[in-house]
Each structure stands twice: as structure tokens, then as C-alpha cells.
Design goal:
Length: about 170
């Protein structure tokens, strides 16, 4: 009984690739559904960002004070970003107040936030410095274009805290 089951199982395993090949050979070859070259993206373009990389980007006001960070992007049915959810206040996600602002209210910056320096020249923060992790040394300023350095919103933290909380 065991031997006949083993032989039957072996025969089925050996026949499976043959059946798969014959069904592929008999199938009619249809033209693949190819979209025009203009409607598909094959590489990253300047000014386009990955949505997954926008989440977590710091939000500053016009006075270069950090007022929160991006927590989520709300997309409408046409694929456009309708609102950006910004987390304001709180500590490590606790007590954070989420507010939604329209995408066009945000200004995206490629350069680091300007900080006050000891010489008063208004240099950008850590523009020439390097950060070291282990034995590798990397420039502190990113050279990739997958997401902006920070976002600027024309509001202060108090104004955002007074806005109605965004509920999921």
C-alpha cells in the first residue's frame, strides 16, 4: 500500500510540469496590454517625492521654530493629496494634536533650517559637517531628492492647537 502511494505521488509530480508546458503551448498568444510611454513613470523626477518619505518630515513656521511633523497624507479619489495631517505638541506621540491642512498651504524646502550661529552670519545648520555612524562618515546634508529637508507652514503652534483635531 505504501509503495503504491509513493509511486502514484511520484508520477503526479513528474507529470505536473508536462501538463503545464502543454497548456502554455496550446494557449493563444495575445498582445500584451501596453500603456503609452507618457502615462507610466520609469524613474524619479525632480519635484516628486515618495509619500512614505514625507511622513515624519518636520514642519516649521516662518520663524524657523519647529511646530510639528507630518503624520499622514490624505489622498482623494483622483490621486491628489487633499490634506496633510500634522502632529502638533505631545511627546513621543503621546498627547499629540493632529490637524489637517491643505497641501497648498505648505512650502517644501530643500535646504536645512537656518539656525543662529555664533558668528551671526546666518549659516544653515550643519551644512558642512559630517555625521559618523560606526566607521562610516556621511555628509549631514542629504543629496537624494526623495523627500524635502523640511516643510514650512505659515502658522504657529498655538494656532494649530486651536484648530479642530483631525479624527481618523
Amino acid at each position: 500500500m505504501k509503495i503504491s502511494l509513493c509511486i502514484l505521488a511520484s508520477a503526479m509530480l513528474l507529470a505536473t510540469p508536462l501538463m503545464a508546458q502543454s497548456s502554455q503551448n496550446n494557449a493563444t498568444t495575445a498582445a500584451p496590454n501596453v500603456q503609452p510611454a507618457g502615462s507610466t513613470a520609469s524613474m524619479h523626477k525632480e519635484g516628486e517625492w515618495r509619500a512614505s518619505k514625507l511622513v515624519g518630515v518636520n514642519v516649521y513656521n516662518n520663524s524657523n521654530e519647529k511646530i510639528g511633523d507630518i503624520n499622514d497624507l490624505i489622498v482623494d479619489s483622483s490621486g491628489r493629496v487633499a490634506n496633510v495631517v500634522i502632529g502638533v505638541g505631545g511627546f513621543l506621540g503621546m498627547g499629540e494634536h493632529n490637524v489637517a491642512v491643505t497641501f497648498d498651504q505648505l512650502k517644501f524646502a530643500k535646504e536645512p533650517v537656518k539656525t543662529a550661529s555664533s558668528d551671526g552670519a546666518g549659516k544653515t545648520g550643519n551644512s558642512g559637517s559630517t555625521s559618523t555612524t560606526g566607521s562610516a562618515s556621511t555628509p549631514a546634508h542629504r543629496s537624494d531628492n526623495w523627500y524635502p529637508e523640511h516643510v514650512v507652514l505659515n502658522a504657529n503652534k498655538d494656532q494649530l492647537m486651536k484648530m479642530p483635531e483631525f479624527k481618523y
